Amino acid sequence: MSDPGKDDPFQVGDKVRVKALAHLVGTVTEVRGTHPRATRILYRVRVPMDPEPLWLEVRADEVEKA
Known about the structure:
It is built from no helices and five strands. The chain is mainly β.
């Protein structure tokens, strides 16, 4: 059995860009593993905004390196 975090493309602290909203750049705050109904990795991303940050939960295929 492989280590679940070993093959993740992004790790906590990595800067990522949300593909659908190309102007949003945030930081990965949590790697949530695979969704129960799918075999995708989910990331919790914090996008700094004013007055409060935007928190997103996105699939691995929806983000790219910033």
